[in-house]
Specification:
By secondary structure, the protein is an alpha/beta fold. It contains 5 helices and 11 strands; from the N terminus they run αβαβαββββββββαβα.
Length: about 250
């Protein structure tokens, strides 16, 4: 499976008709469809009711076989995450934000192709990401342990990658160099800073169609990327006025 041009332009998880479906909270609302948008935490309910609901969903998720895409649009606990990774045949998992610390359960989701982990600063074992060779889309937000992108360097099948900080937290990595090995990338979003302060490793990504990043990089890097990437059609490098206004000189 390859991403469509619309998915490359707008991002794979960008909402479209019935993607995601309307959110539900109670198990009785689920009708057996292959898409499930779940909001079962941060509800206006007592603590005991909240715990009961989460426990019920943990048990239910483990036994689901028909769900192919799962959205969590409220805070995800470790138990909910582990249960989701046990869904047989799961292809897409979207997490708005979480309290997850351990993502090793992803190893069990062997058919997972599309993964978005929203703000999850507590994740400790980022090395697990290097084993996710079946992924086509990977989005990571505010993963504080992700200081070296080397753990992503072998995911050469990726067509879309996003690595960002949060609204209030900068994501700092050592270098973008490991990304240069991801030759299949067509969509790249990087809202971060690297210690070597250069975008130039991205010149190797000749399949790239959409590049989205901040304007803090050197102006010369943006110009070189425009010249080096023959398939580039969308993204930050075409916003010349903003680059001139905010870019490093």
């Amino acid at each position: 499976m390859h991403l469509t041009e619309e998915e490359i332009k707008n991002g794979f998880w960008c909402p479209r008709p019935d993607f995601p479906p309307a959110p539900i909270s109670d198990i009785e609302e689920y009708t057996g469809t292959d898409k499930l948008n779940l909001v079962c935490t941060q509800l206006d309910s007592t603590s005991s009711n909240q715990k009961r609901l989460v426990k019920e969903w943990v048990q239910t998720l483990r036994g689901l076989k028909q769900v192919r895409f799962l959205w969590f649009n409220s805070r995800v606990s470790q138990e909910l995450f582990d249960a989701a990774c046990q869904i047989e045949g799961l292809k897409g998992l979207y997490i708005k934000w979480s309290g997850i610390k351990d993502i090793s359960a992803l190893k069990a989701a062997e058919q997972l192709q599309f993964l978005s982990i929203g703000s999850s600063p507590g994740i400790q074992n980022v090395e697990v990401l290097s084993d996710l060779r079946q992924l086509i889309v990977l989005e990571l937000e505010n993963i504080k342990k992700l200081r070296q992108l080397e753990v992503l360097g072998n995911l050469t099948q990726l067509e879309a990658l996003a690595v960002t900080g949060s609204t209030w937290t900068k994501q700092i990595v050592e270098s973008l160099s490991p990304i240069s090995r991801l030759s299949s990338l067509r969509y790249l979003l990087i809202s971060l800073r690297s210690l070597d302060r250069t975008l130039l490793p991205l010149r190797e990504l000749t399949s790239l169609v959409n590049l989205l990043t901040a304007y803090w990089w050197p102006i010369e890097d943006f110009k070189l990327l425009r010249e080096s990437l023959p398939n580039l059609k969308f993204g930050t490098v075409f916003h010349e006025e903003l680059i001139e206004q905010f870019g490093k000189r």
